[in-house]
């Protein structure tokens, strides 16, 4: 399968898989799509997220970001088909540990398949300035191919709905950290 076709197929699979809930998990809160946002007066231009540029993630992110979690089941992505390796900058590490994420904090999940060559896409979330997208917890989400090229980015309704179930910080690593205490 051609790499571009494989990447598009993986993005579609993640979109569908992220909407599936593990057995017994709470139902995510329905979130309006980005197109269904209410109009905001011109006097409040930052209250409504605008068009999102491609997600800027260098392909060498593995060398630049700290490894926060390795080879853990990714239950929300593909229903547990993949293992997850999580990376983050200092702000992302704080959020992953259950703290508040500052604007600009970055988390990247690399989905690893059961055999080499069967890996999933990269998933990323970046904390935005307060009030930039309150329904998304002020996060911007992205699905990227294995070379860190953007497939989807912005206010991704499937990501927003699922991460709303992660708790106040919207980061699932924080839930694991709290359970370990």
Features:
181 residues, alpha+beta, Chalcone isomerase, six-stranded antiparallel β-sheet, 5 helices, globular
| Number of helical segments with 4 or more residues | 5
Shape field: globular
Number of strands: 6
* Helix and strand composition category: alpha+beta
Question: How much strand?
Answer: 15-25%
Question: What multimeric state do the chains show?
Answer: single chain
Give a brief description:
The chain is α+β, with helices and mostly antiparallel strands. It is built from 5 helices and 6 strands. A 6-stranded antiparallel sheet has the order 1-2-3-4-5-6.
3D structure, described in words:
This protein has a single domain, classed as Chalcone isomerase (3-Layer(bba) Sandwich), CATH 3.50.70. It is an alpha+beta fold. The chain is built from 5 helices and 6 strands; from the N terminus they run ααββαββββαα. The radius of gyration is 16 Å and the shape is globular. It has a 6-stranded antiparallel β-sheet with strand order 1-2-3-4-5-6.
Task: Please outline the helices and strands.
Blueprint: H1 3-18, H2 61-64, E1 66-73, E2 83-88, H3 90-96, E3 106-112, E4 122-127, E5 139-144, E6 150-154, H4 157-163, H5 172-180
Antiparallel strand pairs: 1-2, 2-3, 3-4, 4-5, 5-6
């Amino acid at each position: 399968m051609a790499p571009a076709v494989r990447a598009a197929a993986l993005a579609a699979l993640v979109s569908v898989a992220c909407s599936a809930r593990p057995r017994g998990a709470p139902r995510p809160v329905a979130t309006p799509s980005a197109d269904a946002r209410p109009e905001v007066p011109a006097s409040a231009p930052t209250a409504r997220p605008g068009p999102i540029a491609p997600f800027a993630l260098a392909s060498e992110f593995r060398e630049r970001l700290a490894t926060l979690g390795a080879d853990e089941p990714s239950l929300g992505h593909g229903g547990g088909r993949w293992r997850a390796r999580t990376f983050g900058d200092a702000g992302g590490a704080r959020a992953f540990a259950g703290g508040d994420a500052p604007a600009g904090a970055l988390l990247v999940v690399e989905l690893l398949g059961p055999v080499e060559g069967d890996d999933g896409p990269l998933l990323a979330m970046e904390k935005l300035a307060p009030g930039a997208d309150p329904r998304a917890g002020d996060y911007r989400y992205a699905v990227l191919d294995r070379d860190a090229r953007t497939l989807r980015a912005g206010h991704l309704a499937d990501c927003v709905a699922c991460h709303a179930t992660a708790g106040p910080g919207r980061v699932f690593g924080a839930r694991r950290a709290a359970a370990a205490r």
